[in-house]
Amino acid sequence: MIDNSPSSGRSFAVITGASYGIGFELAKQFTEHAFDVLVSAEDDGIEAAAKRLGAAGTSVQSIQVDLVDYDGVEKLYTKIQSCGRPVNAIAINASVGASGNFARDTELKAELNLIALNVTSSVHLARRVVHDMVDRKQGRILFTSSVAGRMPASFEAVYGASKALLFSFSEALRSELQDFGVTVTALMPGAAETNFFRRAGMENIKVGASEKDDPADVARDGFEALMAGKDKVIAGSYKNEFLGFETRVLPESAKAQIRRKMAEPRSAR
Q1: What topology is assigned to 11-263 in CATH?
Q2: Cα–Cα dist 208/201, whole Å
Q3: pLDDT digits (tens, 9 = 90+) for 41-76
Q4: Any catalytic annotation for residue 255?
């Protein structure tokens, strides 16, 4: 059974999308660095993830909730409040992808659900939690953006735009909160070895079939940047650093073509 009582002297963190991949590894980073955690995900794997995280004796609470819905975000925030503890850090990580030609391949419902999860729920949850952090003049917020958010993401048009919004939102919110003791960090991974590409139908494209980063490495980079108070971190392998450099120096049209070669359907053949 998971110990839901606070561990003496430990801080408290919330992590969304934590049943696997980067989210789970972020939660693991927190539990290994003197944090108790509340983890959430929309799938029933979150309970097994919580048991794994709590095996070392840390306090782990979990909730299965779909953040696509407004009521789902409110349910999570109610759970946060019920813990009776200040949120020292939150990793807003839950997201989904959609791949294909926007005009012919992707489903409108899938694209709108993507916006609801990646964008709307992230802003909604941040608004609830940041208000409390400002009142206390203390807190850390981590948004999982992407290197794809720094370029026009051909064949992932809505996904890339959602991650671009999170990056811009993160930087703007950081500026607004600089006098309130609250830091905001954007985690910007490249392709990581998670279920993301399978769920997004991206296994037959170049980026989906290529060698990917270990999500544990990505999470470690993100956690360290968050705790150091950095505004952003390009996480993972050197390839992501190079891609990040390209996004700073190339025109948008050139960046769109680079992404097209990586994400065009059947590009893995």
Answers
A1: Rossmann fold (3.40.50)
A2: 9
A3: 999 999 999 999 998 789 999 999 999 999 999 999
A4: no
